[in-house]
Amino acid sequence: MKLIGITGGVGSGKSQVLSFIEEHYLCRIYLADEVAHIVQQKGQICYEEIVQLLGRDILGADGEIDRKKMAAKIFSDEALLEKVNEIVHPRVEEFIRGKIDEAEEEGDVELFFIEAALLIEAGYSHIVNEMWYIYTREDVRRSRLKESRGYSDEKISQIMSNQLSEEEFRKHCDFVIDNSGTLEDTHLAIKQRLEEYTWLR
User: Fold this and answer.
1) What is the CATH number of the domain that holds 176?
2) What pLDDT, in 10s, does the model give residues 82-96?
3) How does DSSP classify residue 41?
4) What is the structure's pLDDT at 103?
5) Rounded CA gap, 139 and 142, in Å?
6) Closest CA to 18 of 197, 196, 199, 183
7) What is the residue range of 44's domain?
8) What is the largest CA-CA distance in the chain?
9) Which end of the chain has less neighbouring CB within 10 Å, N or C?
């Protein structure tokens, strides 16, 4: 089974790439952000630690961590954000490693994808066999984020400034998919990369 990390800046189209892969290949896909939400749910491994750190005022009426309340508290405080990351990131990795072990034991897929904007920073290059960088020109990313998420130029610039530069992404990744053009071009690049060691559904 080949382990592949997928990363790239906000608005680069990582979801588009993964949707195509999921439809056409025998694989398993885990999104680090989704796993992070799972491990923070009530009764899960990170819940109590985060509530102790941030206070019960981050909880919603159902007792679950309210992501908006949590974000408001941590994103203006870098030290607090770092503490939350120190709680969550190792648990996310632990969860994903468990899923990798399961997939290897079951032996029914030959591709396992892990997607995260912070894949490089979180050290996943030591887990995966190769890293893919989904590159998209900045003007295209900005246009997509305005249209799909309603983000302002200011918000987009703020998010982008907190992410790795294109040079850093390229330096740490083994393969680059240019997702600035048509979906057909992107799909062709994926097929060419994967055809050596996969079977299609």
Assistant:
1) 3.40.50.300
2) 999 999 999 999 999
3) S
4) 95
5) 5
6) 183
7) 34-109
8) 52
9) C
